[in-house]
């Protein structure tokens, strides 16, 4: 009797327990799966379920569909949180949310507090709280769905605006703790951008990546930092240029990309 329903659920979720539960919740919320009090059994229409869930061919679509039913403010909050990595401190998201007007040009000031919105999102089972002041996404697909709420044409500029806020507002210790994420945010939409301060952030991120032997990240941050230096970098910022080129060359050597290493050694 349930074979048809089970088949639909499997195709939509690939059997992932978390997403299977979310899909069944969605069916109930949409009235596609309901408990018939007269018959004392669950009822559903497989054809209607197929039709109504045709746009949710993967779990990210399913989650995004559910998130779009939240308030505009909660959706904006999810968009901000999606840019902060797999986990983040409450202080970090508070800073971002306090600067919501800077990030959302067309938005009024945030009326709902950070903790209240976090509680709502935890209740929706999108975030969990493993530590007193720390939150993390329950699954990387949930974070991805939240990031898809950001309009595609403004995605890069949105991320960069959050990076600017964190770069400006975080204390040195807090900045060090989320250095990779801040660097990634600042590196969004950087074509033709010259900014020595952001080059310095990339230098710090490259050094941190080198110190933990993550050489692909080291190479990426070093090359981004180089691209942000002015054309007269060897005259105006020789020390930073030497450090960035040295890090890039070292990373390429460890990655076995010797032709790239030679470019940085010239």
UniProtKB/TrEMBL annotation:
From which domain of life does this come? Eukaryota
Q: What is this protein called?
A: Uncharacterized protein
Identify the species of origin: Ditylum brightwellii
